[in-house]
Amino acid sequence: MPGKDPIRVLMIDSEETWRGGESQVALLMRGLAEKGIGVSLAAPPRSAIGRGAEELGVPFFPLPIASGMDMRAVWTLRRYLRRGQFDIVHCHSSHAHGVAWMALGIAGASRDGRPARPKLVVSRRVDFPVGRSGFGALKYRRGVDVFLAISKGVREVLVECGVSEEKIELVPSGIDLEKFDQLGDTGYLESEFGLKEGATVVGNVAALAPHKSQADFIRAAKIIRDEIPDVRFFIVGEGKLRPALDALVDRLGLAGEVTLTGFRSDVLAILSRFDCFVLSSYLEGLCTSIMDAHALGVPVVATQTGGVPDLVDDGETGLLVPPREPALLAGAVFRMLRDGELRSKCVRRAREQARRYDYKRMVEQTLDAYRRLLG
């Protein structure tokens, strides 16, 4: 076992959902714990991320967070901070950031030589603009010691919204590369989804949320289907837009060609069956599904937004098109499917690049940021 590092970290996440071991918070907790860092987690009670922490042997503090201004959560967190004497408080959502920002503002005196106020670290994984006035402006411009942006696109949005560039460090997300060694037989997908032998499969993997813009993917599917009659389309994920997307599929006459799978525990197996992975988002922090596709050797067509260009070099490791342009998206898919030389080059170079996606690099970069803060 590694020696005990003196750094004590409290992770805070307000999200109720968790993608198993591929949650960035879970990977970070695991990596830090393996290095002997004293890591704990505060998150909603009975949440999947909380259960995951307990499975990892990470101390778990129940913390319901209704909003970024939830005063009950603020006072509960304040008690945890006084009890735990942490050096770093690391927030992984906007609500967690707001609650921690207020709790640290009223933190009590230190004990055992620990500082009265732990350093506040905020991971930013989305490229949505942040608040320019009121509470949002305060919590992003004062009191945070460092923001960890997962991509250049996210960093640019923070700077444009008034966050000091000196307070932002680039720490890209990562994936567990060992999971690909555990991918078993995927033949069951042919019978489950009625795929013909050798059928062309084009798919999207993402939460069904507005900024993921699966409606554009479905409109592109209509254009592609009219040119390639036997192609099948998959949207893997769940979310509030499911009824609207189902209705769009029916309206465009694609009920037999487009399949919305809902939540799946075998995402990698389905992704490995794609002949082309398509990202249709108009906002995107980075996209670990592109990382998965690259590691699996699945060609990628994606929208040029947020942190996507950090992963996809147009014409080299995939193809990029402007967001919200279904016709251009369809054209790029046509090109990827029909140009064998381009497809082979993109797959080869993407697989070489995927070696850099190991989550352990994210852990090391995060730990380096902690150490710089603590001197």
Description:
This protein is of the alpha/beta class and 375 residues long. The chain has two domains: 8-174 and 358-374, Glycogen Phosphorylase B (Rossmann fold); 178-357, Rossmann fold. 41% of the residues lie in helices and 15% in strands. The chain contains 15 helices and 13 strands. The chain has helices spanning 24-34, 48-56, 71-84, 94-105, 134-141, 152-160, 188-192, 214-227, 242-251, 267-272, 288-296, 308-311, 326-338, 340-354, 359-374, and strands at residues 8-12, 38-43, 60-62, 88-91, 119-124, 146-149, 168-170, 201-205, 232-236, 258-262, 276-279, 300-303, 319-321. The strands form two sheets. Strands 3-2-1-4-5-6-7 form a seven-stranded parallel sheet, sandwiched between helices. A six-stranded parallel sheet has the order 10-9-8-11-12-13, with helices on both faces. Strand 8, helix 8 and strand 9 form a beta-alpha-beta unit. Helix 1 packs across helix 15, helix 8 (214-227) packs across helix 13 (326-338) and helix 11 crosses helix 14 (340-354). The longest helix is centred in the last third of the chain and has 16 residues, at 359-374. It is elongated.
